[in-house]
Specification:
2 copies of one chain form a homodimer. By secondary structure, the first copy, chain A, is α+β, with helices and mostly antiparallel strands. In chain A, strands 7, 8, 9, 10, 11, 12 and 13 form a 7-stranded mixed sheet that branches. The radius of gyration of chain A is 20 Å and the shape is globular. The first copy, chain A, starts with a helix and ends with a helix. The C terminus of chain A is likely disordered. The interface between A and B is medium-sized, with 33 and 32 residues.
Chain lengths: 290, 290
Amino acid sequence: MSFLDHIHACNRWDPTDFLPFMLDGERLGMLRLAFADELRQWPDRFRVEPDRVVWVGAPDGFEARTAALRETTDALLQQGIISHLHGEQYPVTPGCRRDGRLLIDRACAPYFGVSAFGQHMNGFVRSAEGIKMWVARRSADRRVFPLYLDNLVAGGLPWGIGLADNLRKECTEEADIPAALADRAVPVSAVSYCCDSSRGLKPDVMYCYDLELPEGFEPHNTDGEVSAFYLWSVQQVMETVRDSSEFKLNCNLVIIDFLVRHGIIDPDDPDYLPIVQGLRSPLAKINSGQ
Amino acid sequence: MSFLDHIHACNRWDPTDFLPFMLDGERLGMLRLAFADELRQWPDRFRVEPDRVVWVGAPDGFEARTAALRETTDALLQQGIISHLHGEQYPVTPGCRRDGRLLIDRACAPYFGVSAFGQHMNGFVRSAEGIKMWVARRSADRRVFPLYLDNLVAGGLPWGIGLADNLRKECTEEADIPAALADRAVPVSAVSYCCDSSRGLKPDVMYCYDLELPEGFEPHNTDGEVSAFYLWSVQQVMETVRDSSEFKLNCNLVIIDFLVRHGIIDPDDPDYLPIVQGLRSPLAKINSGQ
């Protein structure tokens, strides 16, 4: 394993397996060919062309479009084509999160290949022995990546809540970090990637934060999503990321970004430039850019 | 002006104006069409094809290739096609700096469109009023961007010197920063861009460093390249970058990267993702990546 291997693992997809999902001339996502075929059952709603799928039957307006797509995803859920709903609403956007054209259930986002936005926070301590990082172990009952290692705090960004409020909420739920402390978190970068998954395509964006914690602070999980926390030296974190697959796939990228920004991965690493550039994938640039 | 405007200004070039410069099947650079035409005077050395220029007459070996290209650039200098020499040798590489296939004079690099590597250091102070940054004013006699604002320390990376040694040397020459203090500089990122210039193409890479300086420290220039230093609040630096063109073109990008990493530009900025992604240009990725 290497740092670049993790970046490549988060950017593994074949464009020929997907068709752009278009609305009003904008690309909102990418549909796997087999999933696009399922949409042929509604020829009045979706026009499946050789190089794209056009949502021709979309009503006007944010609310009406949300309801219309919900009707489609409910039907696909009943047919067993969509596996489950998550319950949180995500924006479907041709670009930034704020440019949502309608909402979609979080669990349905990959089927339509729409960008999901999240927040990941590195919790670290400056000690006499150097930087230490808090690492979380995911609970055994998590639907994805059970028992894998995770960032101290990480969560999706549902529609209708601001970045600061959502981070505060996640800090409370996941690690019992008081709001006053959570508010000291510094937004430091964004990592984007594009990955083929069992449900479809994930062209996702993670807003990254650093929170320097006092040496005496100990996180406690309050929502059942975390089974344990560890305070490791940054060297141990670096080696675990570099040499293993113990971390949830995309958390590796957040930590690699941390290691670069703190000079732990330095420019004498022959992979330095591909690492720095690889943390922001080009497709996400098209999809989540302007 | 905006942050993105500066990023776009450093990534302005038209691929149809340039031809790949090939050696042994590797692309080493990009030649402006008019410059490629000048190479037709040596048909035994360079084969100018519709979609590329192949260096067919290259001898074997690093030293011999360096000497052969030097012969060509000397002739072009005498013909007035190349304006001047700089005196420092840069690697000509299909990828990383260490993969140099031969050397070229620093001033000739843009004519051949080969990547130039440099180091830029943000010098900053944490004070009771927040972060302050040291800003340099370039001397009136600098060949490029005289009297523009600059990073506290910035310099090219000649062949044959390591990153730490070169940064220490630049810190001494440009700001009289003692080696023990310079060694505390943290490598934090790399910024790449690709820009059309009067001499040719600049697909360049800047390794970025942060050095936190004690409040009492004052830089002094020792090599005549800087006419003044200012200690500004990070807000003043941010506004100057965002709203003006007072900084040397590529220094804007180094400061924008600093502002992102320190949370001064935050994800509520609608341009956040294009900014973060735009600091690492795709062409430099092809040219400087693996």
